[in-house]
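Researcher: If only I could read C-alpha cells as easily as an amino acid sequence. Walk me, if you will, through where the backbone shape changes along the chain. I have put the entry right below:
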Amino acid sequence: MHAAQEFEDRLRDGVTRTWGRERAADPDVVEALRTAAEHLATVAEVELEPPDAGPDE
C-alpha cells in the first residue's frame, strides 16, 4: 500500500472514532486528511543525512 494512502486511512479511522462517520465524510475533512497524509508520507520518505562536520582544522 502506498504510504500516503496508509496515512490517510489511519487518519480517517481516527476521525471516525473521535467525531463519527458523518464528520469523516465531510468533503473539507476528506481534503484536509488527504493533504496531511501526503505531507506525512513525504516526511516519512526523507532520508536524513548526518550533519556536515565542516572543514577539518
Summary: The chain has one domain: 3-44. Residues 8 and 32 are 10 Å apart (CA to CA).
